[in-house]
Amino acid sequence: MKKLPRNPMHPEKESDAEVEIWQPTWKCFCCHDSGIVVSHLAATVIEGFNSNRDKLPRCQNPGCKSGSHWDSDNITHCVDYRLTSGICLQLDAAEREAWRETLLMQRQH
Fold it and tell me: pLDDT (tens digit, 9 = 90+) per residue, 75-105?
């Protein structure tokens, strides 16, 4: 009789299984689709940035529509609009590169 191949209950735990690495699903790496620049990125362009005390740096990455809800008249006094689209593009590129490096390191381990 022809044998069927194994069908493990937890294939990810098999010795020959490739470990799946979580990858982000967000489109904008500058704000992770929140509309507010990620704190560690904001700290690279705002001297002494404190996410608990400073205004929230609004993402201006071209094509990123995630932050439109931060433009309400009720909360604009809490939002920092000084970051330009050029700055946000650079932050996006830096964060994408950091993710590529993380993935490479994870695959090597």
Answer: 989 999 999 999 999 999 999 999 999 888 8
For residue 95, give the DSSP letter: H
Exposure on the CB side of residue 16, measured as CA atoms within 13 A: 1
Q: How far apart are CA 76 and CA 56, in angstroms?
A: 9
Separation CA 50–CA 77 (nearest Å): 17
Among 74, 72, 90, which Cα is nearest to 35's? 72
pTM score: 0.78
Q: Which amino acid is it at 42?
A: A
Residues 63-91 as b or e (16 or more Cβ within 10 Å = b): ebebbeebeeeeeeeebeeebeeebbbbb
Radius of gyration of the chain (CA): 20
Q: CA-to-CA distance for 36 and 63, rounded, in angstroms? A: 14
Q: Where are the beta strands (DSSP E) in the chain?
A: 56-57, 79-80
